[in-house]
Amino acid sequence: MSLEGSNFYKLSAIDYKDNLIDFSQYKGKMLLITNMASTCGLAKSNLSVLADILTLYREFGLEILIFPCLQYAKDDTDILKKMYEIIIDYSDKFTVFSDINLIGKDIHPVYKHIIKYSKGFVGRFMKWNFAKFIINEKGVIVKMFEPGDRIEVNEKIFKKLLKNKKVQIEEREVLKYETDPYDLENSSDEELFY
């Protein structure tokens, strides 16, 4: 195992219910890690597509870890509980963590790791919400999606996960959010958060 992978599995974080989550439990799983804020205009579109991705691929070893961060939009901490409810409303299978820092001297260790090993994807800090990182079954960052990048349910990286597991998947009619999740003209995050 690479240094990057072995260091990743030494990490831990507190979930939104105040449980300590040891990242060693993710060995052998593919992860999608993202950060979010409630007032970000990307919230509804990203949560809907992430919920569909998790619906399709969780049984094959994919986990989605969401780290709320109130620093970008300067959200009030009173809205944090509502944000957790909204995330879980999209999928109760997401692993949701407590509010973390992504900027400044108190950057959370998970994101210090991501910044260190992201091979130029990030730079020295996270620039905005919904930067998405795919971490393979060995704890190595293999792909990054910028906040505005489209991520699709049938993304090649997820299909690769299935190929490695030697499993075939059929398009199933279990997706909850079948409309275009990136159609921002016909949706508003304001209805979700206020």
Automatic annotation (TrEMBL):
The active site is at 40. GO terms for molecular function: peroxidase activity. Pfam families: GSHPx (PF00255). Keywords: Oxidoreductase, Peroxidase. One of its GO terms (biological process) is response to oxidative stress. PANTHER family: GLUTATHIONE PEROXIDASE. Belongs to the glutathione peroxidase family. This is Glutathione peroxidase.
